[in-house]
Amino acid sequence: MPSTEIGTSQRLLDELRGWVEMETPTTDAAAVNRLMDHAQAELASVGAVLERIPGVRGFGDNLVARTPGEGKPILIAGHLDTVWDHGKLTSDMPFRIDGARAHGPGIYDMKAGSFLAFHAVREILRQGTRTNRPITLLLTPDEEVGSPTSRAWIEAEAANAAAVLIPEPAGGPQGACVTARKGVGRFDVKIHGVSAHSGGNWSDGRSAVVALAGLIMKVHAMVDLPRGVTTNVAPVWGGSRPNVIPPHAGCEVDLRVGTVADGEEFEARILALAGEHDGIRIEITGGMNRPPMAETPEILRLFGIAKDLATAAGYNLPKQHRGGGSDGNFTAAMGIPTLDGLGCTGAGAHAPYEHILWDDLAPRGRVLCGLLETL
Fold first, then answer.
1. Is the per-residue pLDDT at 307 higher than 90?
2. How large is the average pLDDT for residues 13-19?
3. Among 100, 198, 276, 363, which one has the highest count of C-beta atoms within 10 angstroms of its own C-beta?
4. For residue 1, is pLDDT > 90?
5. What is the mean pLDDT of residues 49-65?
6. C-alpha dihedral sign at 70, 48, 129, 314
7. Is 343 left (phi over 0), alpha (psi -120 to 50) or beta?
8. Order of strands across the sheet that contains 49-53
9. CA 250, CA 236: separation in Å to the nearest integer?
10. How far apart are the C-alpha atoms of 132 and 314, rounded to whole Å?
């Protein structure tokens, strides 16, 4: 068990509620920064060495908090942004407690985990707990859209770290942590056709929507479940009126792969669908934005330590390989031992029924704190 006292699940939930009720859609930098301000003030009050990196390209700031110590630090990284727009709290997703479940926008993905990371670091500093290594806490603003502005800071901090902990949500009914993740690719498709009257001049037109339909089927045909490769096309758009041959259409493509080689192959195959033919021009941009996180002996060693800490905290901690990506993909691909999925149990990420099992906050927090103390 950790030396640091982190409090009861009820106490943690009471403070976490304030985080959840401060809505932080990725697209609103000021909203994300309000929660960043709160975290910064709390960490400053206990003596953390702080660095605030101003946001760029319309995103919020990054916050780095450091504790004293010798040797390479343990990096723990979490994001404060959510997928939910303003107003969910006052419409169909208010913060509420329903027995064992605590609901609210972003509570599972991943305000509970980021809060536990923040709380562990704050209490280690407040209580003067000695740790084997210094700790670096990194709070970021844009993970839900692929970490376009925080990736450089994540990788810079990880390059000097002994290990990386990612408090993304625990997975499945048993609350597994994550030792491997698929890589993620994202592509934007724009199709240019030729407009014409759908009755009087049909032969003069070139339908961008029909071309898009053909492209979608080609992308869907790339799915190879035994190989661990999936694609998904959404959203899609095109056309204006039923009596106009549509000159424009487009979509986004999501690609998931299990290996770096598969990422390179399928990125090339999707990009190769671009070109011009018979009056249709297809533009495709994008590529792999998160490399796969492969399970390694070093990651399994971290998992073994976490599993022992979980046993001491009174629960069994399984592991899993997950199809979704996280910032742990970046650090694991650098060869830095990375353990992911260390947040709270629950379900419903990105769904209206998003919730955590709030009584697990304290035992999950103890494991996180134990890892920070002992690694």
1. yes
2. 98
3. 363
4. no
5. 98
6. negative
7. beta
8. 49-53, 62-66, 135-140, 74-79, 163-165, 338-339
9. 6
10. 24
Q: How many residues does the chain have?
A: 375
Measured distance CA(299)–CA(364) in Å, rounded: 19
Query: Residue 289 has which token pair?
Result: 């934005």
Q: Look up residue 275 and give its two tokens.
A: 């070109």
- What are 282's strand-pairing partners? 191, 275
Q: What is the mean pLDDT of residues 254-271?
A: 97
C-alpha dihedral sign at 339, 83, 114, 159: positive
Contacts of 221 (CB under 8 A, 6+ apart): none
Q: Are 20 and 95 in contact (CB under 8 A)?
A: yes
Residue 78 host element (H or E): strand 74-79
Residue 16 has pLDDT above 90, yes or no: yes
Cα separation of 145 and 55, whole Å?
Answer: 15
51 has a pLDDT exceeding 90:
yes
Tokens read off for 33: 């920064």
Task: Give yes or no for residue 344 having a pLDDT over 90.
Answer: yes
With residues binned 3-state (H G I as helix, E B as strand, rest as coil), the percentages for the chain, rounded to 5, are: 35, 30, 35
Confidence at residue 17, expressed as pLDDT on a 0 to 100 scale: 98
Choose among 368, 340, 311: nearest CA to 158: 340
- The C-alpha atoms of residue 298 and residue 262 are separated, in whole angstroms, by 23
What tokens were used for 245?
């041959």
Q: Which stretch of DSSP H or E encloses residue 53? A: strand 49-53
